[in-house]
Amino acid sequence: MMCRMFGIGRDKKDKNLPVKLDSGPLGSTALGLAERIMQVGIDGKGSFHSAEQIAAKALQESKGDREKAVKEIISDTRRLAAANGFVTGLGGFVTMAVALPANVAGFYLISTRMVAAVAKVRGYDLRDPALRSAILLTLVGADADDILNKAGVVSTGRLANLATQQLPPPVMMVVNKAVGFRLIGQVGEKATTRLGKAIPFAGGFVGAGIDSWMLHKVADNARNQFPAR
């Protein structure tokens, strides 16, 4: 259901699938998910504002103080994540089958936009394909190094450095696809951690707490991976 929300096909999910086995329908699903998250999360769509718009608004409100703008972006996104988790957890076990995919989709999109907005404020070009892949990699935390190693990319420290390596498009496609596999695999993990949401209303508070905590981890990673240029 999550994949349908992003307008791509569905197939069997396995977050541990090696990069060398990423061909076929499953690979197309993973790549489609990754590309859709980058497109909507960074460039925006409809009423969902782009990362550049979010960054510009934060800089305006902070009167040009870049670090204050970063804090504002993260704070606003944490509130969004908590609200998203609360609303999708209100129905309890009965609505979990529908609410969980919606929650996961929403979490990925606002997390991607947050990371991209932080990168923009700190001086990075959001049009750079390698930089966009680096933003996507931020979502998987410590798994990023493993993905890069399997794709044959030598790690040079922070993810922001990907933009300086001039990697060929096929390599970046493999990286994006591998991230897509990991994100699809996280749907099952989220279902397990959200069993406490089986109780209507109380589940909303559980969902809000989980999403706020997970967003905090992504935010810390973004601050570290995209230092001011």
TrEMBL record:
Pfam families: EcsC. Keywords: Membrane, Transmembrane, Transmembrane helix. The chain crosses the membrane at residues 86-110. This is EcsC family protein.
